[in-house]
Amino acid sequence: MAKLSLLVLTSASLMIKQYAEQYRKGDLDMTLTELEPDLSLPRIKTYDFIIVGAGTSGCLLAGRLSQYFRVLLLETGGNPPPTVNTFLWSNQFSTDTLINYHFQSKQKHYSLKTGGMLNISQGKMMGGSGSHNKNYYNRGSPYDYDQFASITQDPSWSYLNVIQHFKRFESFNGILLNENQRGYGYDIFSIIFVGFYGTSGPISVTTSSGPTLEMWLAAGRELGFQAADPNAFQIEAFSPMALSTKNSARSSSYTGFIQGVEKTRRNLRVLRYSQVQKVLINGNKIAYGVTYLRHGIPQIDHASREVIISAGAILSPVMLMQSGIGPAKLLNSANIPIVQDLPGVGQNLLDHADVLLKFEIQNPSAAQALYPILSETALQDELVKFQAPLKTGAFSGENVHQAFIVSSRAKRENEGNWPDYHLYFQLDLPTGLETNTTNINMRVEFGRPKSRGCIILNTEAYAAGELDDEKLVTFDLGTFTDPTDIDVLLEGIRLIFSISKTTAFQALDLSRHSVAFVRYLYNGKKDDPLAVVDPELKVLGVSRLRVVDASVLPTSTNANTNAPTLLVAEKAACQILRDYLDPNSDPNLCPLDNPAYFTPFNN
């Protein structure tokens, strides 16, 4: 069993590398053939919009805007390897250097066993981190978005207003504990009739309902917590896990918005292995294009309407700095001409740090009942089932659940209805282990930390001509710079131990055998005096330039950031289409909701 398990995971890693290299070589051959007539001189093309980064935000934006305008989408990486079970290959996806960035952060109060050094992984491929993560799909709390509206003084960011954007890109077909919320229901803030879930969008959303769900919900009830659905209107509760998957495969902004239309939509041009160097900005502070290296070959293209930076929480601030937008002192030290002095670029970095506790199931019969594949023959049978066109069996789903909890700190601050930390439960598949054991992982993650960090351009490396993005980034996550975050984390750890001792879990006979520190990255920017973008995500002081990704959110949501990042892009797409198609239209009307309202040209 152990040998076969190791073979499965080793084969997965080799296949990822082979696919990545195959895609790169094929794209290089195509690029050299295309550029050969240019005699190594850039041939400038003009598009309506240039989007820098084809991650979660960039793919959605490109898909939406190219229905109406000419769009160039630039991505440093290539295609993700074929979409597979998110649980089985997630580790290989997130660690492979060919399809991921790997940044390092030096900490003062965290991960001291390793000298404070943390490795941060970010997807470098079409779909970005949405193509390598576990595809947990959580909108966050309604209070998160109402806080965004308060900070920006723009009511369009309130939860009741952003629900329309979530629904537009969702196709929800999962289970619900409260079936009354599937279509319509009364919201918790006012007596109005609203729909909660989208049913026809490009992003498929389902839920995990494995054999451990009832055990998890029962443990929560035993400890005094409700059982409730995670989205619609998040409350303090134990919940199923929502997943952006379809037929056990990832459903990402790449698969939903680009993959199916790229070859047929004439308005859309996607260039992979294209690393943007800077945004071109003229003397009147108007962005008009970008310079980039396509397989190392210098290129220039222009945008007649806007340049949109969607390079992610780490690289978007760095891209602004490289383009002369950021703290004046830092730009001067790198000999970068100052276009706009914005001291807030790279500030207000938030980290979803967490602690992972592993438990081993000591009761073999209980483990066998949860996952009846603890033999080499059974494992082979399950792999065959998963490889079939209609994926079935143990590998086709995930036994993963969650809970949203309000800490004592939040209650003291009159936020008793606003969860601020997040628990995860996951039943490990018995693969990749040297012994036939089944583990349960439980994790506590900060939802709304008070600690803040920052991202800085490595000025010495930049001035020396360094081109590698990983070497141009210096940042500090700032974890535990606010000591009360430690209290919240410890409170969550104590709750995990209480869960492991509930009656619901007694039959498993759990024993804890390891603890690990993990972290999730998140970035945001507050209002004055560190404002970088306005509520419409336009960069302050520079025309025709926006930033559209997780880096623009002023605070973190109490959950995974993929769904909020999709929301940012969807909301921005509607705003941009209104700006250029009919600036005088109703601000609540999105062209995407009424295809007859505007007629896309030459599509």
UniProtKB/TrEMBL annotation:
<dbReference type="GO" id="GO:0016614">
    <property type="term" value="F:oxidoreductase activity, acting on CH-OH group of donors"/>
</dbReference>
<dbReference type="InterPro" id="IPR007867">
    <property type="entry name" value="GMC_OxRtase_C"/>
</dbReference>
<keyword id="KW-0285">Flavoprotein</keyword>
<dbReference type="InterPro" id="IPR036188">
    <property type="entry name" value="FAD/NAD-bd_sf"/>
</dbReference>
<feature type="binding site">
    <location>
        <position position="276"/>
    </location>
    <ligand>
        <name>FAD</name>
    </ligand>
</feature>
<keyword id="KW-0274">FAD</keyword>
<comment type="similarity">
    <text>Belongs to the GMC oxidoreductase family.</text>
</comment>
<dbReference type="Pfam" id="PF05199">
    <property type="entry name" value="GMC_oxred_C"/>
</dbReference>
<dbReference type="GO" id="GO:0050660">
    <property type="term" value="F:flavin adenine dinucleotide binding"/>
</dbReference>
<protein>
    <submittedName>
        <fullName>Oxygen-dependent choline dehydrogenase</fullName>
    </submittedName>
</protein>
<dbReference type="InterPro" id="IPR000172">
    <property type="entry name" value="GMC_OxRdtase_N"/>
</dbReference>
<feature type="domain" description="Glucose-methanol-choline oxidoreductase N-terminal">
    <location>
        <begin position="312"/>
        <end position="326"/>
    </location>
</feature>
<feature type="binding site">
    <location>
        <begin position="56"/>
        <end position="57"/>
    </location>
    <ligand>
        <name>FAD</name>
    </ligand>
</feature>
<dbReference type="InterPro" id="IPR012132">
    <property type="entry name" value="GMC_OxRdtase"/>
</dbReference>
<dbReference type="Pfam" id="PF00732">
    <property type="entry name" value="GMC_oxred_N"/>
</dbReference>
